[in-house]
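Hey, I'm writing a tutorial for new members on how sequence and structure tokens pair up, and I'd like a real worked example in the thread rather than a made-up one. If someone can provide the structure for the chain below, I'll link this post from the tutorial.
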Amino acid sequence: MSVKTIPYFKTGYFSKLVCDYLAEKPELQPFYNRFPKLENFEKQLEEKSLSVRALRLGLGQAPSRTILVESLNNQYQGIKVSKATQSNINSLSKESTFTITTGHQLNLFTGPLYFLYKIFSVINLSETLNKKHSKHHFVPVYWMATEDHDFEEINYFNLFGKKIAWKRESAGAVGELTTEGLEELLTQLKSNLEMSGGATENVQKLTQLFSEAYTKHNNLTDATRYLANELFSSYGLVIIDGNDCDLKKQFIPFAEKELTEKLSFQKVEATTQRLEEIGFKKQVHPREINLFYLTKGLRERIIEEDGSFKIKNTEITFSKEEILKELQDHPERFSPNALLRPLYQEIVLPNLCYVGGGGELAYWFQLKDYFESVGVTFPILLLRNSVLLVPKKLSKKLEKLNETIESLFLSPYDLEKKQTHQLSEVVIDFTPQREHLKKQFANLYAIAEKTDKSFLGAVAAQEKKQLNGLDNLEKRLLKAEKRKLADQLNRVTTIQNQLFPKESLQERTLNFSEFYLEFGKGLFQSLKENLEPLSHEFTVLEL
């Protein structure tokens, strides 16, 4: 077992926005509250406590910890809850308890690997804070994106290069979808696992996990909760479903402002413009009303036209008075979009830090001013851990090829070029010849200065032609050497293709089951032991 880290900017896979944030560039500092350093969490929890008190004074009420605990206990009905998780749920009733939260879609069988990295980021950060601040308690939370409606983003997972997809009609919030049809995917999963690993104990565990989650629960929310609980309950992870009437009652004052004042649109537009002025693109486009109307089989945008509130793609219409009454009577029918969901989350949870990927952090940066305008503390934003899992057998092959893991982050073309330069018996670099040529032309330029200007142009044209000729010869030599060394180059590019499928980070494509098949519980133990959320570097983990 070995672990190493690489600065994110050196991987070539992370945006300028993310790299500038991690470098704490001054121009980005107005768009977040505190940088994720261990010493900043004490001030964050003090500010969060004051924010809750201010909400109580301003609104006549504050988010209720009692309601939060009751809702969580109701959501866990029928699920075997570990002592660690139940203890964490109970602790949320105390003013000294705070959460560290990540959110994720209801991807089938967890989807890509980075789901695991998100969860272990919040688990490990919570443990670090518990050791540092003995007077407070910190709880890792997974916020399920049950209200999303992008079914095509979550209805599959990749396994050994094949797409295991759930094909069905979909409408409304994905969390309410029945699990009908997932028995067929269980058969595919078992067949693919057995072809790759035989009828092993790990195959049995994976197929049983899928079966229990997706064939014995009625909807995708319950299936995902069961799955995440089975995988992470021993670490005390608390799983929350925001599509909850009692929780949404606490969001009513903010949803009302959204409907009547369009405050988020004004604030987010202004912040987004400032981000664009310093060279960053908007991640999410704010709407005038950032709420959906949600009923069974329906999740559509709320649009105001001429004083009436219409539900897009339906005949449903409300007057202002009617929609405000609907909000009071049925808060569960109002669903925050990607821009408003963070506010809802920060209102119902005593949250200090949100852990997300680069894309998620990008839209959080658009929200800072809006949070300030409604008097809610903006959380610390932490980039989740990113990991490359390298089986030991591939590490040994790289060593034999005298190649480093860092080189595999290069593009396939640049990797082959680097390898060819290393392996070739000839020097594939015509820099000395270029320098010699330029010296010769320097003499010709001196002669040209003394004669007609047209001769000067002819000399410059000839120099360019000959330098281009050397460039072309160098490229042809490189191609010739690549052909000659094809077998050796192929060994390295084969490893790169295995670790970077489709020229992408492994974590964005592969499913955890491929590694669990070989390493079993050791996969989770290795991630738990080696991921450092506050290191702010990419992790390479040899298994």
